[in-house]
Amino acid sequence: MDDRGSTLRELRRLLPYYRAARLPLVAAGLCALGAMLSGLVIPLVTQRIIDGPVRTGDIGTLVWLVLGVLALGFAEALLLWARRQLAGPANTRSEARMRAALYAHLQRLPLSFHDQWQSGQLLSRGVDDVATVRRFMTFTVIYLVTNTTTIVVGLGVMYTLSPVLGLVVTVCLLPVMVSNYFYENRYRVVARRAQDQTGDLATTVEESVLGIRVLKAFGRGRHLRAHYLVQAEELRQTGLRKVSILATLWATIIVLPGLAIAALLAAGAFGIADGSLTLGTLIAAITLTTYLSWPVESLGWFLAELNTSAAACERFGEVADAAATVTDPARPKPLPNPVRGELRFEGVRMRYPDAEKDVLSEVDLVLRPGETVALVGSTGCGKTTLTSLVPRFYDVSAGRITLDGVDIRELALHDLRGQVSVAFEEAVLFSATVRENVAMGTARPTTEEQVREALRVANAEEFVDALPQGLDTPIGEQGLSLSGGQRQRLALARAVIGRPAVLVLDDPLSALDVHTEAEVEQALRRVLRGVTALVVAHRPSTVQLADRVAVLDEGRIVATGTHRELLASSAVYRTLLSTMDTEPVNGMEVTAR
User: Is the peptide bond before 338 cis (omega within 30 degrees of 0)?
Assistant: First the structure.
């Protein structure tokens, strides 16, 4: 594909975000053009001064011409000030729109997208690439157009002054244009590589910070540091390659205008000697060439920035164009009022994108209103996948899931997730206060009493009140300032504050010590009261909380019943229990005999 066409195609992506800013940006461009044209007139006035008052001694005319130069300089400065005043606010608003649109789209994208993308790559696109676009629209695009116009107009003025001198300047500046075209294509490839490497580096830094405890525990900080230094060196080499391309380009575009001035002096001297040129014309031509130097020299840099911005747009579009496959239906159905919480899996199949086989195959399961069902199975059998289908983190490949008889794909996501709440195996908390973390479990405004009620249900109010600032205590990134049991109970409080009809718990007792497990188990007994719950169980203590147990094996539900019934009838269940910790459940030893 033609690189130039590809560049323009990527830049067209900006139109929806900058449509509201088009009038201020056009006005800013006209101001910049006016400033450049004001500067172009000054050499013509200089010619009049030298060939007029300086030659004839007419002081009266000289005063007016000097005042004219002063007025042109003032107009140039004023128009440049106006350009910044017009372009700055319009571009920052568009930048904010781009970031907001990208962030909102990231929230809409399914988990299958996030499973495949590194967080550092997403971060670099939402921060660095959008900032690159804003700089391009604020400065580069305006002056790329303005300076090109200035060069064309300047050469026209030069030919008006003297066709010979105009030809000399054209011959000297033409190689600059060729160099710009040659180097811009090379620069684009390197610029894209640098942006991708920046994203990789951001991912490494983020993972190192989030996993600092693991790195310290296993003494792997030095290993990851070496990996980071390799990535940093690759980025440095790419940066040096960019510098090398720009250095060659700048050397070309700086030398050639200098040669143009030398050629003008030589041609002008002969012209003055034979009477075909005046001194004023020569000085005006030299002044004009000097004035055109920056527009000519800047073209290389502007074209480099053009390609950098096109690469940034391309990277932005890789996320912005990703399909949001889990979406609201065209005509959402209402949920029954009140919601009873009956959950049905009917012939559910699930296959991840690019996977060779189904993770879930013909799953049939019914959860009656208010019933707690424990889901047990070996590692990799599809338990987490099954629980992820209920709030539509993924959509089923075949079959359907219904809530109170309505296919969940026919419900608005907001309505569905207002009735289905989730607590994950890992209690993910945010860099916010306790109050804000708990209130995140519902889209509705919450009172302090509602937050406290959720904490009481999750058996968390006592330890929260003991924190330095109570509900308003910042808990730090990932909630690492709290114990595992405290984090898990806050996650449970967050799950129940919205009073959901269905609760999905993915192994809430995993990785807890015996004392902490007892605390969380006590909280779970209160949380599960009165709601329909699907609980992934890896421990007998979790099984003990359930009314019934469903056994998942190789993507299928192979048995359902109470713990006692399955011990008597299901060999798969007995085998699974034999791999769990040995402890009594309902007064019976759970290990297989």
Answer: yes
Angle between helices 221-274 and 279-320 (to 10 degrees): 150
* Amino acid, single-letter form, for residue 252: T
Q: Which tokens hold the place of 240?
A: 């040096």
The arrangement of strands across the sheet holding 556-561 comes to 420-423, 502-506, 532-536, 372-377, 548-553, 556-561
SS (H, E, C) 62-109: HHHHHHHHHHHHHHHHHHHHHHHHHHHHHHHHHHHHHHHHHHHHHHHC
- Reported pTM: 0.70
Place of tokens 């109010």: 461
Q: How far apart are CA 172 and CA 394, in angstroms?
A: 62
Reading phi first (left if > 0) and then psi (alpha if -120 to 50, else beta), residue 436 is in: alpha
Tens digit of each residue's pLDDT (9 = 90 or more) over 324-341: 888 889 899 988 888 899
Q: What is the mean pLDDT of residues 286-296?
A: 81
Angle at alpha carbon of residue 471, lines to 440 and 428, rounded to 5°? 40
Tokens at residue 351, please? 């296959």
Amino acid 224 reads L
pLDDT at 510: 61
Rounded distance, CA 76 to CA 74, Å?
5
Q: Which residues contact 413 (CB under 8 A, 6 or more apart)?
A: 326, 327, 328, 392
Ordered domains of the chain (ranges, CATH)? 9-320 (1.20.1560.10), 343-428+504-589 (3.40.50.300)
In sign, the C-alpha dihedral spanning 147, 289, 155, 259 is negative
Asked if 519 and 348 touch (Cβ cutoff 8 Å), the reply is no
Tokens of 2: 């033609």
Q: Which residues, including other chains, have CB under 8 Å from residue 121's CB and lie 6 or more apart?
A: 196, 199, 200, 202, 203
Q: How far apart are the first and last CA of the chain?
A: 69
